[in-house]
Each structure stands twice: as structure tokens, then as C-alpha cells.
Amino acid sequence: MLSEADFRARARSFREAFAAAFAPETEVDVFYAGKAFLSTHVARWATQEGLCVDTASGGELALALAGGVPPQHIGLHGNNKSDGEIQRALDAGIGRIIADSLDELERISALAVAAGTRAPVMLRLTPGVHASTHEYIATAHEDQKFGLSLTPALDLEDAEASAPEPGETNPYLGSPAWTAATRALQLPGVELRGLHAHIGSQIFEPTGFELAASKLISFLASLRTTYGVELPELDLGGGHGIAYTEADAPRHPEAIAEALAATVKQACAAEDLRVPRISIEPGRAIVGPAGVTLYRVGVQKNVPVEAPDGSTTSRRYVAVDGGMSDNARGVLYDAEYSAVLAGRRVTGEHALSRIVGKHCESGDIVVRNVYLPTATARDDLLAVPATGAYCHSLSSNYNYLTRPAVVAVHNGESQVLIRRETEQDMLGRDTGFAAD
Ligand SMILES: *Cc1c(COP(=O)(O)O)cnc(C)c1O
């Protein structure tokens, strides 16, 4: 279940907060990261609130286009885009392709030249800052699949492609990022618009974002020094944290925007650069809190467990009619959620409970620890908040469970955004399956 008003309000608050913080120097584009949750209706809400939409595959691109997002307002991400996906982006005339590798740049160039067009390209860099929740790691070598490193490679092939001129003091020479930027400026069919970095997810502290922004601006300055070009755009990615439980205290968009704007303006002033056009890419911070999952209670068990003092106590297991197929975040990230009894008011005692799914995995846990009324009974409804992001979009048919519907609520009205999956939808792909 998705609150349209909540989604719209969060979308608007990011747009307004960032516009205000970066004015009058520059403008800001807010790209809603569609992978958090995308449907044609949601793409339309985002567009109506003045947001652009980020996609990360041909399928997400198709959905954004079907939702009426103006192609100019769509970005295409991905570390392994196929030629078909790049071609589709070029055919649709989308606003930007975020190139993730040298290999991809060459293919974008060839496809754009063949199509008689120029592709608007951003380069995804890995600034050596990786952040999550309350911590960030600043590292020279980011051991991960995304983007282009700023660290000079010992790899000779890369280093030779951008051999230092005598007297040059460019810290990025020989890095995969520098090699790619150099190539992007030469390649026909490529219009290099700017740099991009996305440093992680569920981040609460500003430091990681600020460090990454400073690195990118320093890279922009080196490009200006060496090639005399000032790239017009800078994309600072997403990853802004939300409250999954009461323990999380996310910052308001105004606070995030003001901290980043101060850093960017200061770093640009220090390098004597114009402040580039900024973009950000929040996903969960827009759609996560808007979503609530409703489960129906089935079997309950009291299981004896050892207490920290060695005595034996019991844990109440409450099984529901879904689980890791509709919310994989517990299994993937040990994610924490909370839950409340919905649909009826119950007074009296509460017991420490664990809400589990119905899948054949003991790790199939929806909410690890929550106090639920002891009167919770079969067929009661449980509501799990903050499930708008990365739940439906990561859903599966494990154990051949059909996926639930996604319903929007707005001003007391409901609307089915994505209908419930039928057994025919799911099993009909099996060529031996015959429906009645
Ligand atoms: C996933 C992703 C985002 C959105 O991350 P959130 O944590 O949902 O804000 C933004 N940009 C890129 C490149 C991503 O891969």
C-alpha cells in the first residue's frame, strides 16, 4: 500500500530544498531512482512533482516511457548496459546515459555515430568514499563493480593511454576515470556533460557526501586545467537514509541540501569554477516511507530460547502470508523493520515476537523483534511500515508464491497500481502448464 500524498510531499520537499539551497548559483535536477519502486503511475507522480526519473535497465526505461516521463528527463544507469539498451536510450532521446566503463563509452560512441546523433553522457566515478548509515570509509581502492576509479592504475595499458606530459601535476593521470574522461572528450557521438558519483545507501551523515562532492569538483578542475573545458553538470547520487524503525533519525532534505550546497559552493570557489548544474538521485527517501505492507497472521508458535543469563525463555513466532518473496531486505541486509497490529484495537499485554514469512528458509524473517499484543490471533492484519522502497522491486516468486498487489491510497480513495499476480501469470511461462 502506497500513500500518494506522502510520495508527492517527499518528492516536492527534495526538489524545493535543493533548489533553495543552490540558488542563485545554479539549478538542481532531482532524479527519482526508479529501481526503488517503479510503476507507470509512480513515474507520473514523479513527473508531476517536477522530478526526473533514473532507470537502470531497458525494462525500467520502458516503464518510465510508458508512464509518460519526458525522455529528456530520464537517465539510464547500469554497469553492464547491453547495446540494445543503449540503442533504446538513443532512439528514445533520453536526457543522459551514465557511462560506467571505457568499454561502454566506446559502444555509446559507435551507436550514436551510426544513429547520426550525439549521446549526452555522464561519467560514473568512484571517488573512494563509501558510506552506509552512520559510517563512511575513505579508500583509495574501491573493490566493487561500479564506476571508474580516481586512483592512478598500475595497469600499464590504462596508464599509457594518458601518459603524463612533462611538468604536469595532475593527481588523476593514469586513473581509469581520467582515461575515460579524456576519451569521452575525443569520441565522436559523445557529449560529455559531467560527472556522477553514488556512494552508498541508507546514509544519515553528511560527511561522505561532502567528501565525494569535493573529489568530483577537484577532478572537474583538473579537466579544466588540462583540456580547458568546464563540464556543466555534477550528479551527487542518492542514498539518503530513512527511518525503518524508531531507532533511525534521518535528516530533513533542507539539512542535507544546505550541507551539500555549502560544500559544493566552497569547493568550486576554491578552484575558481562556476558551480555546475547539480543533480541528486533519491530513491528510498521518496518512496520508502510512503509504503506499508499488510500481512495476514497465520500460525503462531512459542519457541523456547536461551536468555542472555542462561535461563530458558520463549520467543513468539508469528507467521504471515508473505515474507522474503515480497521483502527480501531482511535476508539481503539484515534489515530492521517494525510492525503493528492493524484492523482492530487490542488492549492488554504485549509479548516479544518475531514475524516470519511462509518460505522454506529459516532466514525468512520480516521483523526480527517487535512487541505484539498477546491477543494477536489468526487472520489479524499486521502492518509493516517503511516498505515502499526495494520491496516490490526486489520481489520474487520463490516457492511459487504469487506477488501481492500494490494499492495507492489518496484522500480516502484507493487505486490498484499493480494488480495481484495470478497463478496463471506465474505458471503460464512453464510450457507444460495448462490452466483450467
Ligand atoms: C540505487 C541508486 C540510487 C538510489 O539509492 P537510494 O538509497 O534509494 O536513495 C541512486 N543512484 C544510483 C546510481 C543508484 O544505483
Structure description:
The structure is a single chain. This protein has 436 residues and is an alpha/beta fold. It folds into two domains: 2-287, TIM Barrel (Alpha-Beta Barrel); 292-397, Lyase, Ornithine Decarboxylase, Chain A, domain 1 (Beta Barrel), CATH 2.40.37.10. 30% of the residues lie in helices and 26% in strands. It is built from twelve helices and 21 strands. The protein has helices at residues 4-22, 40-48, 58-66, 83-92, 102-114, 156-161, 176-186, 207-227, 253-271, 284-287, 329-333, 423-427; strands at residues 2-3, 28-33, 52-55, 74-76, 96-99, 119-126, 129-133, 135-138, 148-149, 190-196, 200-203, 233-235, 277-280, 292-306, 312-320, 340-342, 350-356, 365-373, 381-385, 406-410, 413-418. The protein has an eight-stranded parallel beta barrel with strand order 2-3-4-5-6-10-12-13, surrounded by seven helices. A six-stranded mixed beta sheet has the order 16-19-14-15-17-18, with no helix packed on it. The chain has a three-stranded mixed beta sheet with strand order 1-20-21. Helix 4 crosses helix 5 and helix 8 (207-227) runs parallel beside helix 9. The longest helix has 21 residues, at 207-227. It is globular, with a radius of gyration of 24 Å. The mean pLDDT is 95. Pyridoxal 5'-phosphate binds at residues 239, 281-284, 390. InterPro entries: Ala_racemase/Decarboxylase_C, DAP_deCOOHase_LysA, De-COase2_C, De-COase2_N, De-COase2_pyr-phos_BS, Orn/DAP/Arg_de-COase, PLP-binding_barrel. Substrate binds at residues 284, 329, 333, 361, 390. It comes from Nesterenkonia halotolerans.
